[in-house]
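Sorry to interrupt, but I need a hand with the structure work. Could you add the entry underneath, on a fresh line?
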Amino acid sequence: MSRHTYIHRAGVILTTLILSACSSLQLFPDKRTAQALAVPAQWQESAPATQQPLTSQLLDLINNRQLNSLVTQTLAANYDLRQTAIRLQEQRLISHKEAGATLPVLNLNLNADRKKDTATSHTLSLDLSWEADVWGRLADRSRAADATTESLALDYRAARDSLAARTIQSWLDIQMRARIIHAETQWLNSLVDTEGVIRERFLSGLNGSNSLADLEAARANAALTRASLAARQQNQANAWRQLAALQGKAGTESLISSLTLSETIPPVSNPPTRLPAEVLANRPDLQAALLTIEASDALARASRKQLLPGFSLTASLSNSAGNLGDLLSGSTAWSLLGQLTAPLFNAGRLKADADITDLQAERSYLSYQQALLNAVNEVETALGQETSLATRQIQLQAAVQHSEASLAHYQARYRSGLSDILDLLSAQQNAFNNRIRLLEIQQARQTNRITLGLALGMGV
């Protein structure tokens, strides 16, 4: 049998194996096993009324120049956000590298070879190699890298929005906590004054046998208030440190000196409410999760195509000479090689890689569905919280009015000797407690409005 016949039969066998492998390969299996989440047409919780024009900027909810400057400084200095920006730059380079994989590679090589009893031989060659992307595998990898880059860009935007929201909320909490500390300080001063009045009565013997008990009761209330005030002041110091940490600072002195605590409650407008479909389309975290699915699907396709034959082309132009100066003269040799490779046996490694990427694509799809569910619940929770806090604020405002009137009544009765000190202390405690609870509800409501704005897709 001639050599040509052997080569022909080997080619037929190889071609048959390749075609058999291609025909039995399922390139695009069904990966979606979970049902897609149904997005509601309307929110279940009622949206609060607002005079705020349609805007996508969180800072538009608060008209405060100092806060605008604070957010700008935080976005520029925050360490976590800067790391996210670097990761985005890295991914852009990866995307550029994957895009270049479809282009030919050209290398210039200079080799020197010397053996025993022979003169040195120098070879200069220009080598070109190129993989023909017949099945689109390299294109899939490039699309996956591009989708990942876009996803990270949206993640960076979401991180900026989240950082801005945290900065605004920290600023609001510090402002409101300062008012609460002021109210509790007034309460303590009132208790000290009451203690002084009781002491005078005790020394003059006006209260009879109850004087010592009244004085001890007043001192106990003052001590409890001092303990509560110390805890609030420590919480305020921690809040300053957390805000400084967002700006990448270890100390709070410069931050405290640059911020002015407002004497009035900073008003926060209700964010304009959009329909669920509009909200979900505007949230960068959901858009990023959607692009992650696209990237995972593209990688899964590329991994499946690893099981298909590969085609490559290699070309070389070279010249050899004994002296380096003669390499650019004389005749050159060239070669051209086309190569076909097909995976026939690899112990299932390539198939396992393909199955792994399929599962990763399925996982990214489920992750998106979970993010979608979380986004809907975040908006519903914030809307419900706004309604609840508004109702509680109205009731607490009424409670403050009634407790203030009760306090004035018991103060008059105590001065007239018609009521004992315990009734007065109880009335004082109720009045100041209700004032502080009202401030805490106002603080929670303002913070929740920023949370609602972020959940609705507002940012910076």
In short: The chain is about 65% helix and 10% strand. The radius of gyration is 37 Å.
